[in-house]
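About this split. The held-out portion is used to measure sequence recovery: a designer receives only the structure tokens and must propose an amino acid at every position. Recovery is the fraction of positions where the proposal matches the reference. Here is one held-out target exactly as it appears in the evaluation file.
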């Protein structure tokens, strides 16, 4: 089994698709949910695929629960469409984020279902255990699986919640993708996750991704600045250039160093993987390769702010002598 230690904008979307087209089972491990996904690809073309997807969600709703769904679909590559690619909350092209309505709804007393389908009473009813095998239950958990304190319906995962279920969760899994970081703050994992999985990790192939194309990496991270920091990139750069450069330092070096330290302290072996030059088939052994630019957001960068962001990225690369 592989464990992929990438954080935001470090190749997880590419790894998901790489596993998907090779019919591998992957886990998206999040603080509030473990999502296990297996894809059976019937036809794989360059821009689309005919596939069946098997999804299981492990979550904490009054204790450990799981729900599953099977869907058949013709999947189309969204990154080949400019109009789709720019729907993320970009600092370069600041369009409306896909999940804006959901995030604005958190903690609001004026609650409204984004689908216009489920009332509060229906959500309470259809999340009872007797409905766990229904698509309604799966749909509601998909929409509202975030902490109760934030207006959701589920609690964060805990050691006590998962301790008796690891064999089932990890059965036939080819790769784990962390959807969060280890440390402190929102969206982070607590140490109990590593405590529980230490032996599993020690016997897995742990991959730490890095980028040797520092300019491309800096532009991409700056593209995420608004989304991750909640600040306007260009305004923040004019006020406090160092804070922008420190933000880039975290991705380029601190996160990598912290991850190495975490694994070294627990005697967990790891290897580095260059997202720009490394061979996916040679490293992972899955022979259906994916274009290295598959999930790259560069299609959205031809915008009036693009040249200014490139200037900032170049200045950063020069200042760090990369």
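Reference sequence for scoring:
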């Amino acid at each position: 089994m592989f464990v992929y230690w990438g954080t935001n904008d470090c190749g997880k979307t590419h790894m998901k698709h790489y596993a998907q087209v090779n019919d591998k089972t992957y886990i998206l491990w999040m603080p509030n949910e473990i999502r296990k996904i297996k894809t059976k690809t019937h036809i794989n073309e360059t821009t689309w695929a005919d596939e069946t997807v098997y999804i299981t969600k492990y979550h904490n709703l009054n204790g450990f629960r799981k729900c599953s769904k099977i869907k058949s679909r013709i999947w189309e590559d969204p990154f080949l469409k400019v109009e789709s690619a720019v729907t993320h909350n970009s600092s370069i092209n600041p369009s409306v984020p896909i999940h804006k309505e959901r995030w604005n709804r958190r903690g609001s007393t004026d609650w409204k279902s984004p689908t216009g389908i489920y009332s509060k009473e229906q959500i309470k009813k259809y999340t009872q255990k007797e409905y766990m095998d229904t698509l309604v239950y799966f749909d509601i958990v998909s929409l509202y699986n975030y902490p109760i304190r934030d207006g959701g319906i589920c609690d964060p995962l805990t050691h006590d919640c998962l301790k008796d279920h690891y064999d089932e969760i990890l059965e036939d899994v080819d790769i784990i993708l962390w959807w969060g970081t280890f440390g402190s703050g929102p969206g982070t994992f607590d140490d109990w996750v590593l405590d529980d999985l230490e032996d599993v990790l020690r016997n897995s192939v742990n991959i730490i991704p890095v980028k040797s194309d520092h300019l491309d990496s800096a532009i991409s991270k700056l593209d995420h600045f608004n989304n991750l920091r909640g600040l306007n990139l260009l305004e923040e750069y004019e006020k406090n250039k160092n804070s922008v450069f420190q933000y880039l330092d975290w991705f380029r070096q601190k996160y990598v160093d912290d991850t190495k330290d975490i694994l070294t302290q627990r005697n967990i072996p790891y290897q580095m993987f260059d997202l720009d030059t490394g061979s996916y088939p040679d490293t992972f052994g899955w022979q259906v390769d994916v274009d290295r630019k598959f999930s790259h957001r560069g299609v959205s960068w031809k915008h009036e702010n693009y040249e200014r962001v490139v200037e900032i990225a170049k200045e950063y690369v020069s200042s760090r002598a990369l």
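Annotator remark: The two ends are 33 Å apart (CA to CA).
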